[in-house]
Every structure is written in structure tokens, then in C-alpha cells.
Amino acid sequence: MSQRHPIISVTGSSGAGTTTVKNTFATIFRREGVNAATIEGDAFHGFNRAEMRERLAAAEAAGNRHMSHFGPAENLLEELERTFRTYGERGAGRTRIYVHDAQEAAVHGVAPGHFTEWTDLPEDTDLLFYEGLHGAVVTDTVDVARHADLKIGVVPVINLEWIQKIHRDRATRGHSTEAVTDTILRRMPDYVNYICPQFTVTDVNFQRIPTVDTSNPFTARWIPTPDESMVVIRFRNPRGIDFMYLTSMLHDSFMSRANSIVIPGNKLDLAMQLILTPMIMRLIDIKRRVA
């Protein structure tokens, strides 16, 4: 953790909704004049799309049906930790971009499924913002979590997470429901061992819970809307959180535990701005005082 060069990490699995949170942070940064360096978790995948397919096929042929992008062997977690540590020490580091589709390829000049070259992060930024799978991961060899000053978890209940992933991958990547289901099953051991534990050490978790039937996510025709959801917001350390203010500002919200508040799903963006803006500005204030 660093006072001079703070780091914010947003962690959530594929289909969890971290991109929505990323957009909220972008709004806060723009409004408050925060100059943030941004890195995406996909940049630290260990293999491009074709290489990963070859590895998956080889693993399956050898009887291993549980290799996935969630696991440490398929990611450059040491490089990610080095980037966090270097930024915390010197406000520097490097990243790259994983190009998902033709639209991104037209921007970056790299074929879909490949990475751009590694580049240095911009100089003189106020903080580092990470969004991806492993922003608070801890393994036998790496501890990314210890370098982040503010850790956010985005954790829909698992049926909703699966529904969001199925619909996204069918609509934007052309995958069949069967193919997405196979991916979900293959990732499950790594999800349990490397994704879920991160949400124990995150400072704030946002967990969306549908209020409609999602009993069988593999046949759900629609993604539950925010109006059909509630969001549980859990604070790892509730000291200093003004719950009375939050419940007064967020109509129909209530406290469910001493460290948790439940809000209507359509109030998520407002809740994030009310909760996260002071946290971000506190990091910036500390940074400026120690500079």
C-alpha cells in the first residue's frame, strides 16, 4: 500500500459487471479531476486466444477439464504484482491491451485475440485503477491484495452471474449456450480457489441479487433488470461509514447487518458515487499531504 501512489482495484469474474463499475469510477475521476492510470486484468493473461485454445485442448486430451483463465498458471500474476508494487513505489509500471474484437482491433491495430506491445504507464498520475479478475488475489507465490489501497468486489449471486455471462457471450462473441455452460463448468475449481477468496479481503463488495426467479440460469430468456434486483453492499470495516446518511439518500434502502446496507438495484450507480467518492478523495488528500 502506498500513500504517494495509491492503487484502486476492482475485482470480479467474467460476466460479473465490473465494466459497469469501471464506468462509474470514470465518472467520479472526471468530475473530481483525478488523473488515473488504468490497467485491465485481461492484459495479464498469459496466452493469446489461439494459444489458450491449444492449451485447453491439450489439457482436455490429458484428462484435465478444469484449466481456465481464472487460474494462476494461465496468467502473469507475478507481473501483475510487480506492476502494483512498482506503481506504489514510484508511480510507474507497464501494461498492455488484450484485443477482444474487430472494433478494438481497428483502434489498436492488432488482430482480435492478441495483445498489444507492453507500454509504460503515463507519468505523474494521481492513482492506478485496475479492473479485472485478480485485483486482490493471493496465492502461494503472489500477494496482489497487499499492494492495493482500496479494493472493490463486484459479486452478483452466482445464478445471475451465469445469466449475464451466457447472454453476453452469445450476443457479443457468438457462443452457444452449451459452449458457455462448458466454460462455466471448466472454470469452477479455479473460481472457488482463486476468485471467491478475494471477496473476503475486499474493502467494499457490491452484490446484486435478483428478485425474480433465476432458478435455472441456463434457460433464462432475459437478464434481470436493475428494477428487478436488490444490491447488498458489505463494508469490511464499517467504522466511519455514515449509514444513516446513506439510508436517507438511497430511498427504500435498509441495513441488514452492522456492516451491510441493502439498496434497490436501480440505485447502484448513485450508491457507488456516494460511497466511493469520499474514499477516492481521501486517498488523493493523503497523497497531496505527503507529497
Short description:
The chain is of the alpha/beta class and 291 residues long.
| Percentage of residues in strands | 15-25%
Compute the number of strand runs: 10
Radius of gyration: 19 Å
Strand order of the largest sheet: 2-5-1-6-7-8-10-9
Summarize the SSE layout with pairings.
Layout: E1 7-11, H1 18-32, E2 36-40, H2 49-61, H3 77-90, E3 94-95, H4 102-108, E4 119-120, E5 127-132, E6 150-154, H5 158-173, H6 177-195, H7 198-201, E7 204-210, E8 229-235, H8 243-249, E9 254-257, E10 260-264, H9 268-290
Parallel strand pairs: 1-5, 1-6, 2-5, 6-7
Antiparallel strand pairs: 3-4, 7-8, 8-10, 9-10
Helix pairs in contact: 1-9, 5-6
What does this structure look like?
This protein has 9 helices and 10 strands. With 291 residues, it is α/β, with parallel strands linked by helices. It has a single domain, classed as 3-Layer(aba) Sandwich (Rossmann fold). Strand 9 and strand 10 form a beta hairpin. Helix 1 packs across helix 9 and helix 5 packs across helix 6. The longest helix is centred in the C-terminal third of the chain and has 23 residues.
